[in-house]
Amino acid sequence: MSLDPALPVILGDQTQLRQVVHNLLANARDALVEVSHPGVIQVSTQVIASDGVETTARRAVRFTVTDNGAGFSAQVLQRAFEPYVTTKTQGTGLGLAIVRKIIDEHHGRIDVSNRKEGGARVSILLTQLAEQVDATPQDNDNASLQ
């Protein structure tokens, strides 16, 4: 694990975001079942500029899960977020579809790719941060409920 110690609070549904983490870790674990080499799952978080410009005040949290399994086939990679697409004999094919729906509902972005070293990478960008809500000026007539 490589976790950024300065992570801001993410605004979102704790149960749904826990489901995202669970699904991604379960997928990574399952990808390592058939490899002959020692399997490695890496989890990382970092704070980045949400628009890619380092001078911006708008920040986001990137959450990434990687593994050194077989990676995604080209066919699965193109359809990874579609319901019922799976490479597992016992899988339902709903894991990544659910993850994408939750991330979309949290106004985030998700990307899946193969690592050039082998294995898969799933990267999530979450932009709804408590610090940005707190920093937004509010007029007294329209104060939000916390």
What are the defining features of this structure?
146 residues, alpha+beta, 4 strands, disordered C terminus
Overview of the structural elements:
The chain is of the alpha+beta class and 146 residues long. It has helices at residues 14-31, 74-79, 95-105, 130-134, and strands at 41-49, 59-67, 109-114, 120-126. A hairpin with a 5-residue loop joins β3 (109-114) and β4. α1 packs antiparallel against α3. The protein contains four helices and four strands.
Query: What is the helix fraction of residues, given as a range?
Result: 25-40%
- Spell out the helices and strands N to C: HEEHHEEH
Largest sheet: 4 strands, antiparallel
Strand content: 15-25%
Helical segment count: 4
Mean pLDDT across every amino acid position: 83
Secondary structure class reads: alpha+beta
The spatial strand order of the largest sheet comes to 1-2-4-3
Overall 3D form? globular
Distance from N terminus to C terminus (CA atoms, Å) equals: 33 Å
- Low-confidence stretches are 136-146
Gyration radius from CA atoms, angstroms: 17 Å
Total number of beta strands: 4
